[in-house]
User: Which sequence fits this backbone?
């Protein structure tokens, strides 16, 4: 049972990973406009450039408005990960030296 839970959580986290990657962020407007064009059921096709511009504008506005909050959260996360690795490496050296 534990194996199925681990596999399920790993699969879910793998699906969510592209949503948190900053390097993938510029690809979202184009991807959403591509999906809107492919999934359109009406004969009338809207401009994918307009949807891409709208999404890009929203992303830029979010990043500009919440820049201070994003920087603080990123700083706290960096400190947390650094402390985790420091403790992890300390435990490894402790086992090796004893």
Assistant:
């Amino acid at each position: 049972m534990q194996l199925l839970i681990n596999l399920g959580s790993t699969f879910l986290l793998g699906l969510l990973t592209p949503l948190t990657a900053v390097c993938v962020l510029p690809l979202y407007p184009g991807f959403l406009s591509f999906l809107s064009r492919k999934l359109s059921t009406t004969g009338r096709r809207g401009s994918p450039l307009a949807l891409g511009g709208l999404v890009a504008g929203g992303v830029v506005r979010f990043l500009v408005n919440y820049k201070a909050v994003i920087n603080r959260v990123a700083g706290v996360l960096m400190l947390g990960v650094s402390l985790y690795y420091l403790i992890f490496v300390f435990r490894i050296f402790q086992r090796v030296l004893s």
